Amino acid sequence: MHFYRCWLENPEANRLLHHFQQRLRWQQPQIRMFGKLIKIPRMQAWYGEAEARYRYSGLWLEPIPWEPELLALQQRLRVDTGSCFNAVLANWYRNGNDSMGWHSDDEPELGVEPAIASINLGASRRFQMRHRNGAYKFELELSHGSLLLMTGSTQHHWQHAIPKQKKVTDPRINLTFRSIRGDENHGK
Ligand SMILES: O=C(O)CCC(=O)C(=O)O
Ligand SMILES: [Mn+2]
């Protein structure tokens, strides 16, 4: 795992935060939890190449074709990380009441040791990580303009979460770039 605190300069990060808040096609899908349908506690949008269909918390997401600023970030990530991502899940936490529960990004569509590049814009939020064996837990502060790169066996051994932070009033956008394998590769 690598963390780059100042991957984007402040003026660019500010511009992108406003751009994505206004321009992405945000939705608040429902998921089934304990037999009930509930809205996820944040807004979400899935962009990328046509083959990048993704199952996330039991939802099938059809990608919206790349938006120019998302594509520009994808190209920058290819240069900086060497990974070629074909899709991005955008999460908009409107304030500290929005959150994401414990999970790992280990869906079969992502392959065995997925690289995931996570860009942060807006309010700083706590990113918690816990080892599956229960022995270790730590957290990072994901600040405006930072990049978190998760690679190798991270998703296999660790879960992560964004807890609610009642005192946070500002919005945050997180972009997790992923590489989804097409249907023909599933199960191999
Ligand atoms: O908002 C974040 O930093 C985490 C997002 C995340 O874990 C995900 O989209 O799978
Ligand atoms: Mn995740």
Automatic annotation (TrEMBL):
Its cofactor is Fe(2+). 2-oxoglutarate binds at residues 91, 93, 103, 160, 172, 176, 178. GO terms for biological process: DNA alkylation repair. The keyword Metal-binding applies. It comes from the Bacteria. Keywords: Dioxygenase, DNA damage, DNA repair, Iron, Magnesium, Metal-binding, Oxidoreductase. The keyword Iron applies. InterPro entries: AlkB-like, AlkB-like_sf, ALKBH2, Oxoglu/Fe-dep_dioxygenase_dom. Substrate binds at residues 34-36, 54-56, 106. GO terms for molecular function: broad specificity oxidative DNA demethylase activity; cytosine C-5 DNA demethylase activity; ferrous iron binding. Residues 84-181 form the Fe2OG dioxygenase domain. Signal peptide: none annotated. Gene3D superfamilies: Alpha-ketoglutarate-dependent dioxygenase AlkB-like (2.60.120.590). PANTHER family: ALPHA-KETOGLUTARATE-DEPENDENT DIOXYGENASE ALKB HOMOLOG 2, DNA OXIDATIVE DEMETHYLASE ALKBH2. This is Alpha-ketoglutarate-dependent dioxygenase AlkB. It comes from Corallincola holothuriorum.
